[in-house]
């Protein structure tokens, strides 16, 4: 009887040992895989956070540059103090030449109290979202299709603290339109 019990133990012991090793290997593999998944997730999250922060930083810098350009145009119109549409148009032409020297694709624009807008080529038309401009406190940027083309333009406009009075109208807003194509 001892011999058969011993023979049984010789067979069961390796089987039991193999089962324990198999279960242990599966548990270690599952733990290690979960650990690696968490590690990869944390690394991807860290990279996405870094890229997002860089994107916001670049966007802030870009918008700051755009507003400085709009401020330069506004200050130029204020300091020039044109009295006629022709003088205003001449000043806008000079500004347009300055910005055409680069690849800025921007057009200086002023808007009067009735919503008429003026560019370097003179009086153009009526802006459709005048209420939005009137309600702004200092400045506003807006995606616009002011010219009725397929182009996507962004309007960077300052509301003037003191309007510029011309012979037949009063300028309330000054800035530019930028073509982002």
Task: Explain how this protein is built.
This protein is of the alpha+beta class and 181 residues long. It has 3 helices and 6 strands; from the N terminus they run H-H-E-E-E-H-E-E-E. It has helices spanning 2-80, 85-100, 130-135; strands at 106-112, 116-119, 122-126, 139-144, 153-165, 170-179. It has a 6-stranded antiparallel sheet with strand order 3-2-1-6-5-4. Helix 1 (2-80) crosses helix 2. The longest helix is centred in the N-terminal third of the chain and has 79 residues, at 2-80. The model has no long low-confidence stretch (mean pLDDT 84).
List the helices and strands and how they pair.
Blueprint: H1 2-80, H2 85-100, E1 106-112, E2 116-119, E3 122-126, H3 130-135, E4 139-144, E5 153-165, E6 170-179
Antiparallel strand pairs: 1-2, 1-6, 2-3, 4-5, 5-6
Helix pairs in contact: 1-2
Provide a concise account of the structure shown:
The protein is of the alpha+beta class and 181 residues long. Helices cover 56% and strands 25% of the residues.
> Span from first to last CA?
93 Å
Query: Could you state the oligomeric state of the chains shown?
Result: single chain
Total beta strand runs: 6
- The overall average pLDDT, rounded, is 84
User: Major sheet: order of its strands?
Assistant: 3-2-1-6-5-4
Strand content: 15-25%
List the total number of helices.
3
**What global shape is seen?**
rod-shaped
Structural class: alpha+beta
Report the order of strands and helices.
HHEEEHEEE
Radius of gyration: 35 Å
Low-pLDDT runs of 5+ residues are none
What is the percent of helical residues?
55-70%
């Amino acid at each position: 009887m001892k011999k058969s019990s011993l023979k049984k133990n010789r067979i069961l012991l390796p089987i039991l040992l193999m089962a324990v090793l198999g279960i242990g290997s599966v548990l270690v593999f599952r733990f290690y895989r979960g650990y690696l998944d968490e590690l990869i997730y944390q690394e991807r999250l860290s990279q996405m956070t870094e890229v997002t922060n860089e994107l916001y930083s670049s966007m802030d810098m870009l918008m700051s540059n755009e507003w400085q350009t709009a401020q330069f145009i506004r200050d130029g119109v204020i300091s020039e103090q044109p009295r006629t549409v022709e003088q205003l148009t001449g000043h806008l032409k000079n500004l347009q030449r300055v910005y055409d020297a680069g690849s800025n694709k921007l057009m200086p624009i002023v808007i009067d109290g009735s919503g008429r807008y003026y560019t370097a080529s003179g009086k153009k038309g009526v802006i459709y979202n005048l209420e939005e401009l009137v309600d702004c406190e200092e400045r506003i940027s807006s995606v616009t299709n002011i010219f009725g083309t397929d182009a996507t333009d962004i309007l960077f406009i300052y509301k003037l603290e003191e309007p510029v009075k011309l012979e037949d109208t009063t300028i309330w807003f000054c800035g530019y339109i930028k073509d982002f194509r």
